[in-house]
Sequence to fold (671 residues):
Amino acid sequence: MLYALLCYNFESVVGCWSKEKDDAVMAKHAAVAQEFAARGKLGPVARLMPTTTAVTVRAGPEPLVVDGPFAETKEQLLGFYVFDCAELEEAIEAARSLLEETGALEIRPIAAFYPGTGLK
Amino acid sequence: MNGGRTSKGRENAVLYAILCYHDEAEVGAWPKAKDDAVIAKRRLVTDKLAANGKLGPVARLMPTTAATTVRSGREPVVIDGPFAETKEQLLGFYVVDCAALEEAIETARQMGREESGMFEVRPIRYFAPGSGAT
Amino acid sequence: MSDVAWIDAALTAARPQALGALLRYFRDLDTAEEAFQEACLRALKNWPVNGPPRDPAAWLILVGRNVALDEKRRLNRHEPLPAEELVSDLGDAEASLIERLDSTHYRDDLLRLLFICCHPELPATQQIALALRLVSGLSVKEIGRAFLVSESAMEQRITRAKRRVAEAEIPFETPGAPERAERLAAVAAMIYLLFNEGYSASGGTVHVRVPLCEEAIRLARLLLRLFPSEPEIMGLAALLLLQHARAPARLDADGAIVLLEDQDRGRWNRAMIAEGLALVDKAVRHRRPGPYLVQAAIAAVHAHAPRFEDTDWAEIDLLYATLERLQPSPVVTLNRAVAASKVRGPAAALAMIEPLAAPLSGYFHFFGVKGALLMQLGRGEEARVAFDRAIALANTTAEAAHIRLHLDRLMKDSQPA
Fold:
């Protein structure tokens, strides 16, 4: 069963992490990803740029383009993983390992998935 | 003056995530015909990208009623539901390889024409396609 | 990994919002600062034990507010009930109420704090010092070190700035729209100045000054979150990111400057470049080029060139032409001439800079560029005169070394006339 793990945290806090902290977090993420990859259960992984680089298109008869993320939220979506897990508990364990002192990970089962044509 | 990205080498090429936000109560109430029509329309848009090898992973997420959130704290706490209550919910995403921001925006515009919801276009800092689990 | 490391980041990140809110409640900078300081001390004791609060900023505001109110009550114990103005009009609200109310004030609280730091009555040095102390939360010692002055001298500078702020009677009400637009430029200018303090560092001071670049970038991102649709603020953030991205290649092991043409581009920070380019992409959509955005676009052209030799000088020449229109100055024309020389040749560039001789007669870089152009034209003796003039005018050893680098390079590349 495919699950998306959506990583949320305060961008402002993450932006204040020391290099050591940042490296440690990245190492932790790499370890979790590697664990899934070794079993052939790792789907796409994405780390997004900050919400200051976002643009939002509001659907409608004539779509409107607005600078910024879809909404101002206290914590921002920083990135996501797609994991193939035998059951929800496995995804929860993965989320626990990725958790920082602030923020949250939202686990969402994937209803439909298409891997794409293979990007470079 | 342009962003200049279209010129020369690919060392600064960037992928974009198109994050789809909708009122899931509204989407959940769509009859199958409407749902199929929206999907078909989206596919028309992304087929062009796919034909050029520019379409990455696409995911449709189950609604937030199916979500589980692991929250930080003294002890990590597992709760049912999304990480926050918002008017619109993240219901899916596309990863696309566009030559410039404008192209990603245009893709989202086409998806959103005559539709509802919001499409957030966010450049991706790091992407890995995965080990073929999917 | 110590507990304190992540708390530090959370406190620093929450600082502008929390201090801004406390300033709104108490209408006094010292009270707000002390309250915030005390709240931080409590966080350092409390959070490792009880875990982090869901919203660190709201926690700090609530605790800071209560701490300051308790202090006021303690001081006023033998006096009549405090006047309406002294007590927050929220009464004893719960944390969630505070959180809801503060989110509506969030933007204005931040703006007010930034505007106070960048008040026109304050000279640039005081603006920067105040911003680093109040918004970035650097200690007075750290700020002093970064600006190569003693801690007590920096303490005085900050005290003077606060006194001026108090005397100028900065209004604590919400800044109105016209004021907001006007003061935005002042805040941007302060951030840019701060960045350059770090960017211009070389030699032994590098390690204490380069962090100023990072602070400036953080402040620029903060400003951008407040003004998400302003292309010039996108441009400012992009410019800082694109320039700072070169830092790993810009300074050698001794902290000496490595010229752009000699930098190992493999060491450029590609994530920063990507973010900077993404911001330029967004900004150009507004079709309102301003000086920061144009400069960012110039930096973007460099970022796109895999090697110095691949630089699109024609594009840079065009961008400088735009910059000349937006912000005419002899220095801009001088910089344009460097690009122009690659496109139209050194003779054309020399003609461009001749009229600048008078206004730039004291600027070492003018003579550096002139010398380089003369060298390319095979006018060796005149070039040597220009370079000597440049070195004589150099204000710092770094600038002199800069010219000598050019001189060495050109001596190496050119044949004797």
Remarks:
- The first helix of chain A runs from residue 11 to 14.
